[in-house]
Amino acid sequence: MANALIIVDVQNDFCEGGSLAVAGGAGVAAGISRLLAAEPDRWDHVVATKDYHVDPGAHFGNPPDYVDSWPAHCVVGTPGSEFHPELATGRIEAIFHKGEHAAAYSGFEGHAADGEHLADWLRARGVDRVDVVGVATDHCVRATALDAAREGFATTVLLDLTAAVAPETLDVALRAMEGAGVAMTGTPVVGAA
């Protein structure tokens, strides 16, 4: 069997200077790149997810409530939707876009350019174990890890390569992942509450 690294939403809008910035996002991008360079054989496959909004309806709020609605972010065709420049993308085999017309937190809600979904892509390559990294620990990383476990993949979140929005939502996310049997290593960067 094989293993894969899932890089979640390491995009400009979720890093410092973006419209929905998470403190430490740029550092996470650089850290992922360093790990990929230092351990090139650690994963058989590397994939990434992108928030990729066209018109996600109530997911964008004016004003946002920061619970169910958010400032406009990762709009298709804008610089904010692109990968952060500190993220080395050379190893990424497939990108799974999510949330064109609805809120979407999990990478397993996304699809590749040919329409293939993440779980199907992984299974087609014999993947049975995944490591999850990216932004934000308490939202899209959490949702992706929970869905990976639900789909039957042995799932580990490398918390050192994640950044969280706030301590309160991080605590809820860590408990949820632990309860679902997701393994976790390290400590995430955590922004201010």
What spatial form do the alpha-carbon principal axes imply?
globular
CATH H-tier superfamily: Isochorismatase-like
> Any idea how many domains?
1
User: Major β-sheet, in short?
Assistant: 7 strands, parallel
CATH topology: Rossmann fold
Q: Strand portion, in percent?
A: 15-25%
End-to-end Cα distance, whole Å, is 41 Å
Helix count equals 4
Number of strands: 7
Average the pLDDT over all residues and give the rounded result: 96
CATH class group: Alpha Beta
Low-confidence stretches: none
Q: H/E element string?
A: EHEEHEHEHEE
CATH architecture: 3-Layer(aba) Sandwich
User: What structural class should be given to the helix and strand makeup?
Assistant: alpha/beta
Measured as a percent range, the helix fraction is 10-25%
Rg over alpha carbons = 15 Å
Walkthrough of the structure:
- By secondary structure, this protein is of the alpha/beta class.
- It has one domain (2-190): Rossmann fold (3-Layer(aba) Sandwich).
- It has four helices and seven strands; from the N terminus they run βαββαβαβαββ.
- Strands 1, 2, 3, 4, 5, 6 and 7 form a seven-stranded parallel β-sheet that branches.
- Helix 1 (25-38) links the parallel strand 1 (2-8) and strand 2.
